[in-house]
Amino acid sequence: MTFSQLEIFVKVAEQHSFTLAARQLGITQSAVSHALKCLEQHWNVSLFSREQGAIALTHIGQQLLLHAKEVLNTTQIMQQEVNAAHGIQQGTLRIGSFGSSSSIHLLPELLKAYRERYPHIEIFVEEGTDAEVSQWIAERQVDVGFAVLPKSQLVTFPLIKDIFIALIPDSFEVAQQAKLNIQDIQNYPFIMTRAGSQSHVEKLLQQHQIQPKITYQMSQLLTILNMVNLQEGIAIVADMAMPKELLALHPHVVKRPLSPNTQRQIGLAVKNQQLISPACKAFIELAQQKFYQSN
């Protein structure tokens, strides 16, 4: 068994394709097949099932994939530690980011500062929902990710607090109020977000025993804004997900805080604090310096 074989195994599992894995690794497809055959012979198991041109991990393949990622992650950390000992700040950093809150509000400024300090670190960013990013962290697909806290199965580092706000058509009576009483939502048509904050909005409504009159369910923030602008209903979104520049393009939308005030905390998360690379540790420390709010 070699590290190269493990890397090929992980890449094929991620791409569900020998051809795509070979292309990304810059090797031939026959080399990919040979490496997997050697692993399967070494372990005396079948890693993939192959039916009608499609491949899928077997049960044992799924189990071994998690360990393979752990091994490769550890070797990367070791190499970065060696580089750091020689004063060479090189390596890779894989970051998970969810929605507008982190991808627009936090990540660009942080990446700019990080790049200035560590210009030789190669950075990859994967974007998905809050739940997807947490899964990527647990499966070692990313080294660190933004997350809505708490995350009991991960090691987390709080950064910043955010509130939920209401987007209200300016023709609605409640738009004249300084705050929107969350109970008033039941009296108006409601646009449910299907983006990263959907589960948090649903939990908020359940907490206050509110059954909204859902007229639309939409995943794109711009579409939600357009529908509110057309007086089609009220929406609840995270304040950080709503850029001022975008709101200004929708003159018939009024932004109001909720009453009672509803907060959420955003931070960074890793799978194991003892197994984070120097590049990842530096990213977390920089994020805490720039954004950490103690209260």
Automatic annotation (TrEMBL):
One GO MF term attached to the UniProt entry: DNA binding
InterPro entries with a match to the protein in the record: HTH-type_LysR_regulators, LysR_HTH_N, LysR_subst-bd, WH-like_DNA-bd_sf, WH_DNA-bd_sf
Coiled coil segments of this chain: none
Domain HTH lysR-type: 1-58
Record's keyword terms, sorted: DNA-binding, Transcription, Transcription regulation
GO CC entries: cytosol
Gene3D superfamilies associated with the record: 3.40.190.290, Winged helix-like DNA-binding domain superfamily/Winged helix DNA-binding domain
CDD domains the UniProt entry points to: PBP2_LTTR_substrate
Family, similarity comment: Belongs to the LysR transcriptional regulatory family.
UniProt-recorded name of the protein: LysR family transcriptional regulator
Protein species of origin: Acinetobacter gandensis
